Amino acid sequence: MTPLLTVNGITKRFGADQPPVVNAVSFEVYSGEIFALLGPSGCGKTTTLRLIAGFEKADAGTITVAGRVFANGQVHVPPEVRGIGFVFQDFALFPHKNVLDNVAFGLRKMRKKTRRARAMEVLEMVGLADFHARLPHHLSGGEQQRVALARSIVARPRLLLLDEPFSSLDPGLRQATREEVRALLKSEGISAVLVTHSQEEALSFAERLAVMKIGTVEQIGTPVEVYRQPKTAYVADFLGQTNFIRVHVKDGVAETRFGHIRVGALCQRATSTNEVILSIRPECLTMKASCDAKGGRIVGRAFKGNYFIYQVEVEGEIYAVQTDYGCPSQIGDSVVLEAVSAVPVADA
Ligand code: ATP
User: Fold this and answer.
1) What's the CA gap between 60 and 72, in Å, rounded?
2) Which CATH architecture has domain 5-233?
3) Are 29 and 159 in contact (CB under 8 A)?
4) Above 80 in pLDDT, residue 264?
5) 60, 237, 256, 330 - which has most CB atoms within 10 Å?
């Protein structure tokens, strides 16, 4: 399958004596696919998005959309002719224009009648046709977000770029709006790149994602792949809580304080001493009551609604263990831990 968007080795510095904030970043987005750039604040996500939109010029690398080169060493196609939609974090609506005019703004080159008809069609799509005459400040945050979305897709972009579009919404509204936006993108077949620092958002919204670390891409995969098969300790840690242990491997089996774990591909990452780092998610450790003084001891417990996270001390180290909400164990109890599965990771 040919990708819709190809980003190949793009690099951007803000100042010749500064390190690159985007450093040889490469990824592809396929037609109709929802892709996410996930990473901590300042790792270069927004700059990558702005390079794709054409708001920034790349120092090196190539950006191609549907086979057309938008940026390389010689070419820089201006943003207004790229046919790419952009949803900003703060929505960027015109406060003095009503909802319809805000949305129709995306169609400036069309005749007025056609423009209004198309804008109303998209407002219907996002469930806001009845609000077409309102000013933005007479709408809730979620409604404003939908107006911003309507404006960004009214000109039928082949690619939509979303820069932290849900971050200013409160948690309940954020999830509902996210699901609505996702359903709309899928039903309209619009490819999208979402920028977010929320792992939960990236995992639930995107079909594939790139995990970024200080200007570079650390790993690309489906949400399940990057969560369950992180290649590095950094990705494992960024994607959710995990326990790291350094262990020895013999014949594909890791000897751990939580039992022997068969780890297959693990050996490939083993050093000459056969020592590797394993990432064990809290839900991959089981906990049983024990009278063995050499086992572990519960030193903390956090209620998370439908599950608990326990802190268990074993030989001076603290491990996080997830149990279901019915678990009766209390702080101070002696327990033994057993690992159900573990993933070998490269050092952070
Ligand atoms: P956040 O999640 O906080 O928005 P981000 O991952 O999107 O962060 P960017 O906004 O791309 O990160 O910024 C990456 C780095 O580039 C930061 O250190 C930022 O200060 C710097 N930067 C961004 N834009 C400019 C600019 N126009 N001039 C100078 N430095 C900039």
Assistant:
1) 7
2) 3-Layer(aba) Sandwich (3.40)
3) yes
4) no
5) 256
Q: Tokens for 293, please give them.
A: 């003084």
Integer angstrom CA distances of residue 234 from 25, 277, 279: 17, 12, 10
* DSSP structural state of residue 190: -
Q: What is the DSSP letter of 210?
A: E
Q: Chain-centre distance of CA 270, in angstroms?
A: 29
CATH, range 241-345: 2.40.50.140
* Tokens of residue 13, six digits: 């510095």
Report residue 85 as tokens: 């939609």
Q: Beta 243-250 vs 275-280: how paired, if at all?
A: antiparallel
Cα of 31 from ligand 1 centre, angstroms: 28
Query: Where exactly are the structural domains of the chain?
Result: 5-233, 241-345
Q: How far is the CA of 204 from the centre of ligand 1 (A)?
A: 25
* DSSP notation for 34-89: EEEEE--TTSSHHHHHHHHHTSS--SEEEEEETTEEEESSS-B--GGGS-EEEE-T
Kindly report the backbone phi and psi dihedral angles of residue 178, in degrees, each rounded to the nearest multiple of 5, phi listed first: -60, -45
* Alpha carbons 71 and 61: distance in angstroms, whole number: 8
* pTM, rounded to two decimals: 0.89
- Report the distance separating Cα 23 and Cα 176, nearest Å: 35
| Each residue's pLDDT tens digit, 145-174 | 889 888 988 888 889 999 988 887 777 778
Best residue among 45, 55, 163, 214 to mutate for probing ligand 1's pocket (most ligand atoms within 8 Å of CB) is 45
Q: Sheet of 243-250: strands edge to edge?
A: 259-262, 253-256, 243-250, 275-280, 343-345
What is the 226 CA–ligand 1 centroid distance (Å)?
A: 24
Residue 340 is predicted with a pLDDT of 87
* Ligand 1 pocket, CB under 6 A: 14, 21, 39, 41-47, 197
CA 321 to chain centre: 24
Q: How far apart are CA 58 and CA 275, in angstroms?
A: 41
